[in-house]
Amino acid sequence: MSEEARKPWGRRRRQARTSLLAAGEPQVWLTGGALVVCAAMVAGLLALVLWKGLATFWPRPVALIETDGGVYMGEVTRHDDYLPGAEVLAELTPESRAAAERQLAAAGRAGRRLVRTGNFRLTQSHFSWVDDFAVRGESRPEWAVVAERLEWGRFYGFPEAFVELGADGVERREEGPEAAWRAFRREHGAVRERRQRRRGLEKHEVGAVNRRQEEARLALREAEQALEDAPGDAGWQRAAEDARLRFEEVRRQADAEFARIRAEIDAVNAENARYRLEVRTAGEGAVPPQTATLGLDEIVRAYPANQLAAGGKLSVYLARWWEFLTDEPREANSEGGVFPAIFGTVVMTLLMSIAVVPFGVMAALYLREYARGGAVVSTVRIAVNNLAGVPSIVFGVFGLGFFCYAVGASIDELLFSARLPAPTYGTGGILWASLTLALLTLPVVIVATEEAIAAVPHSMREGSYACGASKWQTIRRIVLPRALPGMITGMILAIARGAGEVAPLMLVGAVKLAPELPIDGDFPYVHPERSFMHLGFHVYDVGFQSQNSEAAKPMVFTTTLLLIAIVAVLNLAAVGLRGKLRRRFAGGQF
Amino acid sequence: MRVPDDPLAAIARGETLPSRVHASLAEEEMVLEIEDLSLWYGEAQALFQVSMGIPRGKVTALIGPSGCGKSTLLRSVNRLNDLIDGVRIRGDMRLAGESIYARGVDVIELRKRMGMVFQKSNPFPMSIYENVIYSLRIDGESRRDVLDEVCERSLKGAALWDEVKDRLGELALELSGGQQQRLCIARAIAAEPEILLMDEPCSALDPIATGKIEDLMQALRGEYTILIVTHNMQQASRTSDYTAFMYLGRMIEYGATEDVFTNPRLRSTEDYITGRFG
User: Are residues A352 and A447 in the same domain?
Assistant: First the structure.
């Protein structure tokens, strides 16, 4: 036999090099590549939301565009490519048609721009399309002013005169753009403050009087109901009489209060109505230019768009952001702020966490510590895990049927029968919404807590038993503290899932516009039966249910950005808490 | 019944045989009496009618090859085997005359009279102070002065006081391995147990830490009764007063350490000690 045949491994060893697949080089690239793709998708989404969301409030310059079909003035929002139909081309002037055909020949498509021309009351439209080929001239007028109004959207025009009605009944006019603008700047601050006061009067004081009246009426109704149940009872008759008298007294007081508040409101309105700004529009297409009178009262903010330097633009930008975060929505949610939605989202998420963590931890504790293994425990565990796969709208329907119609109706019958047939708890509210979402996120908390409890070393439990501790003492002093970081992980996951769910909320309590916040200054301060606004629902409403959809579209991104930011803040707070607990209890990898 | 010449082969054949208990034990006062104890894990029998007494104030060592049942026997004393599903006990034990396995015995109260140290130290995720006084806390003791005094006494008894007296509030998990084991010993003696059970306490430690613990056992002897399981025969011969040799769930020979190691009555004991098997 030859040398090599006798020692076959010699040749193999000389030639052997670990193959690429065995060494794992391609796998490193594969797994790394997959991670990069995931990270890129997340980063891309965040970048898109950030870019479009942050850009919404930046004040744009106002352009004056002269076309064949007329003049358009406003902020250019976007550019589009399209194929103009034959009838459109036929109506054009010869120069424009030539320009259009040139564009079509060059690019196959014609361009057009969407201009926010505002002035809805005069022109019946918020936006106009302006074709590129029809443009004959474009400029940035120095005195083009953008006015954001309480109603009817934005106004674009040139200030002509400032009119002030003096105390003596004499009108004083300041003519010309500079003078008018100076006067506007002088008086608008005070007008805004008075408007705030009026809003306060309308909301809080009128609301308080209404509430007192309502309470007296309810007391009367309760007494009458008791009397119906026990007619002839002298005690109830007296009580009903007293209640009726009190109700009359309260109503008299309320009328007096209303009159006083009305007088105050009228005074404020009269004061504000003294100041007016006369603005000339540039015309829009076929609509000729006209002079419109804007009361200072109806202007939220106004600025000469083309005169602003970077500092001025920044201050408008920040002012808009401040309004967005602290103000209430107006114009069917397409303008104004989202403060009620922020408040509702945060309160609902907190209530949901308070509801889900104790129940989840207790359920997991029983499953892990007390239940003897067997078919029943396995079935329960499978059921809990499958609960995580149920579509969220199903939870909404369950919440509506069980919490609102069953439990809520019973509560109404027992405690709030005087208010019937208007439901108190028998309809959607922040309490039922939080409980529904708590059910939705329960499996997450149970699984995370179970894992954390199972990770507590058996040796530690034995040590505790050997010291003479009972099972509950061991759980309370050793197992639960050690499992706390894992339980917080479960809570973080629950918050992340629950804060973003919208479908179940639509059925159990989130509304387009809520008149009051669920937590406010009236006793008992927390009102779990009230409906609330929610950022996720707001995104849906603004994006798809809005009448002025072009104006509302940028708000979708901004609201999404805000929702992501809030969830991130809540998560970071929980992660910080977990880190602190982990250091304290020296837990493991949870 | 005569002890057969080859007890181990007899055991392997399945015969029962009496254990050889030296006469020296008859004079001792027993704190723990093990009476005819048998234990099953499900279908498999792990202890076969073990009978012995643990003398007060002395160190008793259980030796034997792996799987001979010494840890099982130790854990049966404070009924830790109750935590395992499928364990069955026949026979009884008496702690200071009171039955351990009788019906209706309060296991929690029973365990409070004993202390246990495990093979791998298991300090709780709390401060050193809280670890040591754990037994008192679960008993409901909350007077600060009592707890402080017990903590100092126990840590001194475990020869750990000087090293940790300035940092009682720190996490116990940050101590070194040897310190953690001494902390567990301190925790075990804090409640002044009637018997201290040690399950191979030094097997996870380096020789220096092992030496410290062995010195500690010498210091504790007299005041505490110690029952220690060890697979280290040198340790058994160094530290214990009495040694019991177990094999396959049976107690083969039990007597004063010097006697068992220098003059074993049974050939099988001698074989094990001299290392011929196990």
Answer: yes
pLDDT, tens digit, 9 for 90 and up, residues B135-172? 999 999 889 999 999 999 999 988 899 999 899 999 99
Q: Residue A385: give the domain boundaries.
A: 343-585
Closest CA to A587 of A473, A460, A497: A460
Q: Which residues of A touch B134 (CB under 8 A)?
A: 464, 467, 469, 477
Which among B115, B116, B138 has the least Cβ separation from residue A473?
B138
pLDDT, position A95 = 80
Residues 6+ apart with CB under 8 A from A31: none
Contact criterion met (CB < 8 Å) for A470 and B138: yes
| Mean of pLDDT over chain B | 88
A95, A124, A153 - which closes a domain: A153
Are A380 and A487 within one domain? Answer: yes
Residues in chain B: 278
Q: What is the ipTM, given to two decimal places?
A: 0.91
A587 in contact with chain B, both atoms CB, cutoff 8 A: yes
Whether the CB-CB separation of B192 and B150 falls below 8 Å is answered with: no
Task: Report the C-alpha gap between B107 and B113 in whole angstroms.
Answer: 10
A463 chain-B contacts, CB cut-off 8 A: 116, 118, 122-124, 184, 187
Residues 6+ apart with CB under 8 A from A123: A117, A284, A287
Asked if A419 and A446 sit in the same domain, the reply is yes
Q: The domain that contains A496 carries what CATH number? A: 1.10.3720.10
Same domain, A162 and A149: no
Question: What is the percent of chain A where pLDDT is above 70?
Answer: 96
| Residue pair A330/A535 in contact by the 8 Å Cβ criterion | no
pTM of the model: 0.79
* A432 and A376 fall within a common domain: yes
Give the helix/strand (H/E) hosting A299: strand A299-304
